[in-house]
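worker-03 picked up job from queue 'complexes'. Input manifest follows; two sequence lines, order preserved.
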Amino acid sequence: MTPAIDVVNVSKVYRRFARQRQFATLKSALLKGSLIRDLQPDETFPALRGVSFQVPKGCTYGVIGRNGSGKSTLLKCVAGISRPSSGSITVNGRVSALIELGAGFHPEISGRENVFINGIMLGLSKKEVERRFDEIVEFAELQDFIDAPVKTYSSGMYMRLGFAVAIHVDPEVLLVDEVLAVGDQGFTLKCLDKFAEFRRKNKTILLVTHSLDLVEKFCDQALWLDKGQTRAEGESKRVVASYIIDVEKSEEQELAKAESARLAATASKTAAVAAAAEDVPSDPVTTGDAPTDMFKATEGRWGTREIEIMAVSLQGPDGQTGHVFHHGDAIRVSMTVRAHQPNKDFVFGLGIFNADGVCCYGTNTYLEEYQPDEFTGQGQVTFAVDSLQLVEGTYRLDVAAHKLDGYPYDYHRLLYTFRIKSRTKDVGIYRPAHRWEFSPGIRFKAPDAPRTF
Amino acid sequence: MWHNLVALPRYRGLIQTLVVRDLKARYRGSVLGFFWSFINPLLLLLIYNFVFSTVMPGVRPADLEPYALFMFCGILPWTWFSSSLLESSSTLLSGGNLIKKVLFPAEVLPIVTVLANMAHFFLGLPILVGFLVYYQRPLDPVELLWFPVIVLVQFVLTIGLALLLSALTVHFRDLKDLLGNLLTLWFFATPIIYPISQAPDYMRWAMNLNPMTHLAISYQEVLFYVGPHGHWRWLMSLALLAVMTFLLGYFVFDRLRDSFAEEV
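worker-03 finished. Artifact:
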């Protein structure tokens, strides 16, 4: 069977012109006699490099990748809007591209007339538009406004009408670029229903999206583009999984970089403060876990350093130091601490804050009734969690060493960051371990994937 | 090129729809609406008539009566020509959304511009007819047969130039500003407000090189002057030139086509 979309070794090179060229004009080009030379690019930028894939008829195919990885370029090439620099693309069947909704609408004329014009632009005949007109208007939910000029429409109405026309072109191959981001929840669901209907009718869909969820649930196969090259292709769940791992890796690097920058900034600041006055900063830190202070979310470091926190690291379940973890992971927060003189009055504490600066959890050894005896030399303090029940998000850590009365030895305020990833998009600041129970009359469809909470 | 050119007639439904949209949208929201198509050339005519009858009547060519009718024969087609070129120089840029986001035959845009302006030209014709009736001009029905030929030649020539300009403006945006001034010069270099006989002899050869000269003279001969249409040989060579211009315009347009989606 011939595939619906056949992309063979496609490359696309965008030309980039140096700053000089941008201001060059016909006149100056003629005067300098450099007209031909100026039309040559100074620099080229490969948006796609040797991409090949096939989409069988009736397949829903997802394309994922970061911003600037070439997804939209690929879609435009498949749609025929731009031409690949090399390679070939074959599409079998009528194509409709949902790249920008309502691209051809004229603001001054009515929705009704625009539906006709847009439909004809997308390849329908006038009769075909007439036949589908009521359906289109109903889908867009614009019965009352269809005779008003399009310039009076809200952006949502505009998008809905654009989508309704494009989807009713009844293509055999549908190309979709991130258009589901528009519209309210209800309309998005309606669009998804429409896509599902397309699938049932054995039509081919090529979907470019950042919503990995959608790719997993909806696509049979997927392609992962990275800097214009194919990183992975095949069964969508597998491709999405490897993409997620890669995203986490780079997030990890990003967080580590930000953290070390923050630590360096604090180090220089505290050094300056210490030089100015050999004194405890005036900030009256009475107790390390006093809620009033906990909500004052400014990062920094202070204390006398009689006990010094030399280093802080987070380890995931595999024992590797990192910054990105999954919901429910076993996590260890390790502090390397040193007492410059033997010390008999010490408390170690820790606080977890979410991105809004809300304290999710705070505790210390004194609150948990560890009575200090003696601390000499250097050692490790570890806060170990067997299963970290936090919702998805980025969190910051406070760590501290202080006296029983709160007198700070070394207080690190919000200097450490970690991110929690979760398949469940639940919300809040705390996630109690839980399950749902239903009486026999309440039934749910079997989930696509086994639920691991 | 030939392949795309042959495919062009397939878009006639699209072109038709877009021309109608252009005409509808242009006067939407204005009180007089479609009447502007009549009023605009009439106002232009009044201005020139004011200048040459009241402000500086000495400049006005003698023995050319009725002068208003003479001018109108040239102004009406000129307006079609100049607005077409001016608008088509920006039509790809303003239609950028279509070119970048929808699979859309770009040449449709300049063609629609020329056609929409042609529609305005046709809407102005009743006024011309009104003038002819008012001044009780004798019209030779056989000579009138030339009229559609002249219109056709102008149409082909204008489309050729519009294609060329619209494609080049994508790469050289300053063409648009240049064109405005060029068209003003072009207007006065064409025998529209004066008869060609008044032009100095040493300028004749230059004026003969101007294709609009022959179109203007042809319109004047058919509609204004009494007597047979003596300019048809010029008109026929111009027809040849118009076809060549069209092919050149389409060739350049087709060559630059792939760059539109990126440069617009």
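worker-03 released lock.
Chain A touches chain B at residues 14-15, 25-27, 29, 39, 76, 79-83, 95, 97, 99-100, 103-104, 106, 108-109, 113, 116-117, 120-122, 125-126, 149 (CB under 8 Å).
Confidence is low (pLDDT under 50) at residues 276-295, 449-453 of chain A.
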